[in-house]
Amino acid sequence: MSLKYVGKCKGRYKTTLKDQTGEPLTALIWGDPVRIEQEGSENAIMHARGHSGYVDTNDLVDEGLLEIYVIDVGQGDGILFRTPDNKWHLMDGGAPAHLQMTKKGTANFLRWKFQEDLGIQTVSLENIYLSHPDEDHYGGLIDVLKGNLYDRKSFPVAVENF
Q1: Which CATH superfamily is domain 2-61 in?
Q2: Helix (H, G, I), strand (E, B) or coil at 8
Q3: Using an 8 Å Cβ cutoff, are 98 and 38 in contact?
């Protein structure tokens, strides 16, 4: 299984993921990551945005774009970004989930992004950066590093550098 990205398609910035009958499942936009399950000469069977289907292989490229996600952490910061070389980085983690009104935060977003959106079981981060040692910036990182969610569920996490 390989990873590709939606490229600038015939002068457009989107393409359509279709089911086996050709019916549209969802729109994919420039830079969206897709996991190729089986590549053919004209169409690829792939998984993206929670769906499996087909897309024209001419609409796919090998290198993605810079992606930036500003995570709702209440007070403080939580910013996840993916560089075009497919490395994931996290800047700050907001307050711990138990102090947030929604009881969600950086750990919940990372688990969703990797496991549900990308279909990758382990949250794998190249770098975690901490801007300064206030709890509304480092508290959520404790949840992330432990792989713990407020509802006591857990998920695997790998971090190369802190």
Answers
A1: SH3 Domains (2.30.30.40)
A2: coil
A3: no
CA distances (Å), origin 65, targets 28, 86, 152, 155: 14, 9, 34, 27
pTM over 0.85: no
Q: How many CA atoms lie within 13 A of 129 on its CB side?
A: 10
Alpha-carbon distance 93 to 146, whole Å? 13
Report pLDDT digits (tens) over 7-26.
887 778 889 999 989 999 99
> 20 and 54 in contact (C-beta within 8 Å)?
yes
Distances (CA, A) of 1 to 13, 119, 159: 24, 12, 23
Domain locations along the chain: 2-61, 67-161
Would you give the distance in Å from CA 85 to the centre of its chain?
A: 14
Q: SS3 for 11?
A: coil
Residue 120: HSE in the Cβ half-sphere, 13 Å Cα cutoff: 17
What's the rounded Cα separation, in Å, for the pair 26 and 38?
19
